[in-house]
Write a structure and sequence with these properties.
CATH architecture of the largest domain in chain A: 3-Layer(aba) Sandwich
Order of helices and strands of chain A: EHEEHEEHEHEHEHEHEEHEE
CATH superfamily of the largest domain in chain A: Formyl transferase, N-terminal domain
Shape of chain A: globular
Number of domains of chain A: 2
Largest sheet of chain A: 7 strands, mixed
CATH class of the largest domain in chain A: Alpha Beta
Strand content of chain A: 25-35%
Oligomer: homotetramer
Helix content of chain A: 25-40%
Distance between the termini of chain A: 24 Å
Largest interface: A-C, 30 and 30 residues
C-alpha cells in the first residue's frame, strides 16, 4: 500500500487541479483527500492532495512522475510519504505540561510524529523522557554559549534525521541565525492570544487588563519574536476572579492543546505558509 | 460573469475529480472552491465544486456539457447558479426570535436567500414581515384543515418558485405526506441538542436532568419527528442557576443562530444528504 | 412586593457580611442573591446583595435603614430597585445589527431596560426605531458641532431620566469632556478582542495577522479610547478562508451578543468598577 | 493559619446568612468565599462559605461552635479543612488518558487531592502509577468475584482514609451495593453528553446520528447506570469527516478535562447534591 501527500502553492490559473487529477487518475491513484484555497488578495493558489494505491510505490518514483506536470505552474511543491511519522526534536525548559501532553498523545497514536530526542536547559524532565525511551540532552545556555548549544541542536537534528523542531515551552530566545536555520520547520507555543500580550509574563498582562478571554498561540518560529505565522490558537473564557497565577494555570491546558493541534497539523502536512500567515487545511 | 456550483454523490472510484477538472479546464472555467468527502463506511463519494468564468453562460448550457461526463459515474448530481439567491418560504408560530434573526441577516446580505413569503398560524408577526416588504399569510390549522393548509403552502411555493421551506419555530407537526412532499428542501429548528430531549418542552427536560450544556438543532424535515438529518447544532454552557424558563430564553439565541447557519449552508449548496446524516462542506 | 439590590466596594475587613445580613434579617428581608469578591491585589471587597419582602417598601426607606450600618465600612455603595427597568439612551451610526439585537431582546423581556430614545448621525434606523414606539433623534456631527450634539444627548438623558448611555456601533469619538460626563454609565462595543486591534479597522488588522480567533468587547467609556474597563468579550474561531469583509460579517453577531450581555449585566447591577477593571457577578 | 469550608443545604428562610455571618464575625473569622443558591422549585437553600483566620484552630473546635447556630435551620451540613488535600482512590481499566491527566494535574498542584492508591483490572498502568510513587493494585473481576473485589476497594479506602473514589474510565459496572456504599463520594466519567448515548459505544452512536457536538460527562455514581447527578460536561464541535474511532480519540481530551474539572470541584467542596441534580458553585 502507498499513501502520499502533495502540497503546493502557485499563482492561481485555470487547469491546475485538472492537470494533477488527470495525472493521478492515469496512474491509478485514488485521491482520498483534497483541499484547496485561493487567496483573493495575492491571487496565490494553495493545495493539498492525498492519494493512495494498493501497491508499493517509491516516493522518488512519484516525484519523477509529477515533476514535469507541476513544472509549468511555477509551484513551490513538496511530496510526503503519509505513512511515515515526522521525526522531531523537542526543546523544553522547567515547565513540562506541554511536553507531557505531546508525549502522551504521541504514545496514544494521535499525533503522527516520532520524538527522536528532547533537549532542555533544565534536568527536570529527564526521567519522564527516558522512561518513554527517548534520548534526553541537557544543555547549559549562557550569552556566550547560546550559539554553540544551538549548533548542538542542529547537529542533533541532522544526526537523527529530524525534520522539525518543537519548542514546548522552551524559554530561551533563539538567535536570528537559528531562526533562519529552522525556518518553516520549527514550531513555538506562546502563552497568549497573539498579537495580544507579546513578550514576557502574558498572563500578568492579561490580568492587568481584566480581559474575559485568555489563550495560547502555536506559530512558526521567525526572527521577529512572537510574530511568526500563526498555526493554531486555543482559548477560553475567564472572569475577574482569577489571579494572574490562576490564569497561568488555566492557560497550561490551552498551551498543551494548541501545540498538539499545531504539531499534528504540521505533521500531516496540512499547514502551508502564506507570507506572514498560514493556510491550515482541516 | 458566470458562477456555478456542482454538487454530487456517487460510488467512490478512480478518476472522478480528473474527469470533472479536465472538462472544466478545457472550457476555461476556474475552480474557485472544491470540497470532497469519501465516506469510509458506505464507500460513497461526495463533492461540491464551484467554478466561474468572465463570460455569460446559461445554466442549461453547462448542464448539457457536464451531463455526458458525469453519466458514467452513477451520480446524483445538481447544478446551481451561485449568483441567484435561493427563494424560500418561511413558516412561524408565536415565537418570532428565529424569524427576526433570519430577516435581519438576509437583509444584511449575509444569507443568500430571498424570502418570498411568510406563513403563520398566528397574526403576531404580520407587521414586521410586511414592513420588510414580504407577503404574509395567516392560516388556521385544525386537525381537519391541516392537510388543506399544507396544500396551501405547497401551492404558494409553486406560485412563488420557492425552492425551500424554512420552519422558524413553526409549532405544528406536519403530516407525513407533507414531509415527503418537501423532502430534502425543508429545514426545521428543534430546541434541543438532538437526539437528546426530543419532543415537547426540551428545556424543561434539560432542566430536570441538570445538564451543563444546552443547544439547538437545525435539521431536514422527515416524517420521523425530530429525527431528520442534522445540518447544524449550536450550544452553550449552562449551570444549576438557570430555571427552565431561563434556559429557554438562552436557547433562543442558539436556535436563531443554528437556523441561520443551516439555511446559509443549504442556500450555498454546501449540504449533501448521506442517508440519515449530512455532509456539510464548510 | 419589594425587591432591591445593594452593591458596594470597600476595604476588606471582618464583619461586613455579618453587619448587612443581620440588618436585613432583623427587618424581615430574604436575601435572594448574594455575590462577593475580595481582590487579593488591592484588598478591596466587592459585594452585590439582592433582597426582597412581601410588602411595599420605598427605596428611600431602605436607604435610611442601611446608611448607618454601612457608614463605618468606608463604602462606595448604591441601592437599586430591582423591579424598575434601567432607562437608557442608545446611540448608533450606519450599522444597525447591534441596535437591532438590543431592540429585539429588550422587546422579548430579556434585558431589563427601557430604551427611551435613540440618537444617530444617520437617518437609516429611524423607521425601525419609531416602529418600536421609541423617539429617534438625528444629529449632525462635525468638528465644530461635536460638543453641541453631545450636550444635546446629555440634555436628552436628563429630560428622559436616562441612567445609562449605550453606544451601539456609534462611530464618532466622544470628547474627553463627554467621557467624563457619562463616566461609569456609558457602555461601548468595540469590534475586536481588546487590547488587540485597537482603533480603526480591527477586522482588517485581524485578517492581516492571520489570527484564529476574532471577538468583540463591551466596555465602559473612558477618555482613553478603547481602554475602558472591559465588561464582556465574545469570540469565535475563524480560519484562513475568511476575508477581512467576512470576518467583519461574522463579527457582527459577536458584537451584538457581547453588547446585549454587557447591558443586561449593567442593568441588573452586576458590574462593579475595580480601577481599570470590572467585577462582573454572574 | 486556619482555613475552613462550610457547606450546607436547608429549607430556605430568613436569617440563615445572618446567623452564620454573625457567628463567624464574632469569632474573628474573615469570610473569603461565599456562594449561595436558592432552588425556586424546591425552596431549598444551598450555601458554601469559606473562612480563615491567622491562628491555628482545630476543625472540631469550629464544629462545636457552629453546631448550635446551625441546628435550628434543619441543615445537612459539613465542615472541611480547606488546607487538607482530599484523599482519593482511583480505578482505571485499559484506557489511561483520564488517569494520566489526573496524575499530571495533581502533580502540578492544580487539583487539591492526594491519590493514595490506584486499582485496575489491567496491569497496563502499573509502571506509570508506581513511577509517581503511588501504590497500584491489580484486581481480577469476574461475575463471581465482583463483590469481593469491591470489598477490597472499600477496605483499601478505609485503610488509606480515602474520602472519595474516582472512576477514571473504569469499565466494569459496579454492583448496586457498591453504588450505595460510596454514595455521594464516587465520581465516574461517561464518554457522552448524558443523557444522550447512554450505555455502550457512545461515540459509535454519536457517529450514526451525525451529531455536530460530542462531549463527556462527569457524574456521581448511582445504582442507575449513567443517571447519577451530573457535575460537569465538556464538549466540542465535530463534523461529518470524523469516523467513530476519530470521535473517540477527540473525546479522550474531553473526558480527561471533564473529570479533572469535576474532581477539583468536588475536592474544593463546591458540589452539593440537589436531588438528582447538583449545585456546583464556581
Amino acid at each position: 500500500h502507498s499513501d502520499f501527500i502533495l502540497t503546493f502553492a502557485c499563482p492561481d490559473r485555470v487547469g491546475i487541479v485538472a492537470a494533477i487529477a488527470s495525472t493521478l487518475a492515469q496512474d491509478g491513484w485514488t485521491i482520498t483527500e483534497s483541499q484547496q484555497y485561493a487567496d483573493p488578495d495575492t491571487r496565490r493558489f494553495f493545495m493539498r492532495v492525498r492519494f493512495s494505491a494498493d501497491r508499493a510505490v517509491a516516493l522518488d518514483e512519484v516525484r519523477t512522475t509529477l515533476a514535469p506536470v507541476l513544472e509549468p505552474f511555477e509551484m513551490d511543491w513538496d511530496l510526503h510519504d503519509a505513512s511515515a511519522p515526522l521525526r522531531v526534536v523537542v526543546m523544553v525548559s522547567k515547565q513540562g505540561h506541554v511536553l507531557n501532553n505531546l508525549l502522551f498523545h504521541t504514545q496514544q497514536g494521535q499525533v503522527p510524529i516520532e520524538i527522536v530526542a528532547v533537549v532542555s536547559n533544565h534536568p527536570d524532565w529527564r526521567d519522564v523522557v527516558e522512561w518513554h525511551g527517548i534520548e534526553f540532552h541537557q544543555i547549559r545556555v549562557t550569552a556566550e554559549t547560546k550559539r554553540e548549544t544551538e549548533q548542538f541542536v542542529l547537529d542533533l537534528m541532522e544526526r537523527t534525521d529530524a525534520e522539525a523542531l518543537i519548542l514546548a515551552r522552551y524559554m530561551q530566545i533563539l538567535t536570528d541565525q537559528m531562526c533562519r536555520d529552522v525556518h518553516g520547520r520549527a514550531i513555538n507555543i506562546h502563552h497568549s492570544l497573539l498579537p495580544s500580550f507579546k513578550g514576557a509574563r502574558p498572563y500578568e498582562q492579561a490580568h492587568r487588563h481584566g480581559v474575559k478571554v485568555i489563550g495560547a498561540t502555536a506559530h512558526y518560529v521567525t526572527a521577529d519574536l512572537d510574530e511568526g505565522p500563526i498555526i493554531e490558537q486555543d482559548f477560553r473564557r475567564v472572569d475577574h476572579r482569577s489571579s494572574a497565577a490562576e490564569l497561568a494555570a488555566m492557560g497550561q491546558d490551552l498551551e498543551a492543546r494548541a501545540l498538539v493541534h499545531a504539531v499534528r497539523a504540521h505533521a500531516e502536512h496540512r499547514v502551508l505558509l502564506n507570507g506572514m500567515k498560514t493556510v491550515v487545511f482541516d
